[in-house]
Predict the 3D structure of the following.
Amino acid sequence: MIFENISLAITALLSNKMRSILTMLGIIIGISSVIAIMTIGDAMTETVNSAFAAFGTGNINVTVREQNAINRNNMVQMPGGMGMVVMTGGRGTFFAPQDYELISDVIIEEFREAFPDEVAGVVLTHQGKQGAAWNGDLFANISVTGTNPDYILANNVTMLSGRFLSDSDLEDMRSVAVVSDRFVSNMFPDGRDPIGEQVSVYFRNSIEIFTIIGVYRHEAMGFGFSFGPAVPDREIRTPMYIPFTTARQDVRNRNHQAMTVVAARGVNVIEFTDTIIDYFAEVYRYNNTWGVDATNMESILEEAMAALNAISIAVAAIAAISLLVGGIGIMNIMLVSVTERTKEIGIRKALGAKNRHIRLQFITESAIIAAIGGVIGATLGTLIGLAAMPVFSMIMETEMELVVSWGVIALSVAFSAIIGMFFGYYPANKAAKLNPIDALRYE
Amino acid sequence: MINMSDIVKKYFIGTENEITVLKGVGLNIQDGEFVAIVGQSGSGKSTLMNIIGALDRPTEGQYLLDGTAIEDMDDGKLSDVRNQKIGFVFQNFYLIPRTSALTNVEMPLLYRGVGKKARHDRAVKMLELVEMGERMHHMPNELSGGQQQRVAIARALVNEPSVILADEPTGALDTKTGNHIMDIFTKINREEKRTVVLITHNNQLAQLTDRVITISDGEIISDIKTGGGAANL
């Protein structure tokens, strides 16, 4: 019966091609816009995902903060005494922690010993001065990043030659530097091996000399929006990594306001972040003003993903309104069709068709119109997504890959069919309930 | 076969326009008869046909078809009766457009739930009976009026109904073609032993049957056995 109804429906649709196409148009527009938005949204999500992956999702940023600013997943567990701090400390305090209130090397050492299996590394960084290396006509813009050997664990650094910073570089406060390939091509255009070469770096108030010990590959940021004049390649400012201790020579504080803990492979980063918060709450239990907060990329990534998805879904929901319009269009045309075919309905009833046979026939017909519209719409939407990809790649400044989500396509075709059934039910029921005598006599 | 007693049909019941179309009709038709119901338009013959054909229920009275009471059946049951006990032939053929002769003939079997293969075989057999076997894949608009009516007869016969109910079956055809259609009815009455009820306003046509029932103003005014309509052919 279903098969006969489908072939009957297709015959009916083919006998009125123009009308069928116009009826489908609403569904086609609705489905294609939803699919296009979903496709582009998926591609953006994918891009953001891989960009974050480059940052390292196993990294946990640990920072000394005011107690009341610490964001714990379950605030309930806060010890009673801290509640008072929230009130007395209050927002708007703008004094900085004293050096003794920051994280000392001893605290870091103890922390590492407390979690030998969970902690792969602790990265300390000091964002230093900006400057430029000069040598005659040759120059390269740099920004100094003081760090330690663990940096390479937390960040996606690809060494091209030489080595990264070592513990002894830090202990001896050596004036050594790891520079980018961009730096090398600017400063050593003759192709000479830069390892072991000395470069003079000019800062606002000083000139310092560094020995190059390694070269890393500079990669443009994974994503980001850039407007305004583009910077010529020659003038791109790249990080120059120097020993943390060297970078902080002129800083009075010996202790650290922030560090990045690199979680070992297989550690549940989100849970471990909470563990770190608890651990430092113990360490800082006698400090009423300052405490230690920890956040991780993974939860930030999750939030970013959730936000992106929410935007996609919101826009798709707006596009879905046109599906409603399409559905009403189907209902309208089915009502016309039922009226036109009143006599046919009468004949069928005289031949023994029951109400359910007639109802099923018309519902099948509207479901098929809508489903065909859904298939065309899904194809069109994917093509629109494909066509839009280069534009978005340009805005996002990164290669985006088209993710054809078959699940979404199948779902949208099924959803169209359901729309067809829903909006086809009323006309079909009207047809089914026709009195056979009246229907036969209808001219 | 058909046993009707005191059939009354009223329309617009309880309103100012209430009208009684059938005023207590009693009618018995035996298995294998070839009967004509004759009457002018407005006489109530169409209403009577609708009730015989289970398209409509009487307001009062009893109607037994093959011993089964029709008057109290719900719509679904009436559909089954139309499907299995009645074969309709209409003045304007009423084939389903854009649907081949074969599919048209298969339709009553489809609604009965007969399988694809059996449906096809049975429909082909019926089309061959009315000499339309060679044109079974044609669409209705590719067939002449006489051919369409033959397809309609095949469709009426396909479920082996108790009664073939033919409403002015030659009304839209020229005399020669009409005579041919009447021959077919005679043939299915004589050879296939089917009960045929012909509804017409044409007395000459009615004379071709075995029994002529005349209806006027909602009542049967005469019921005459012609005793050998076939002899006139």
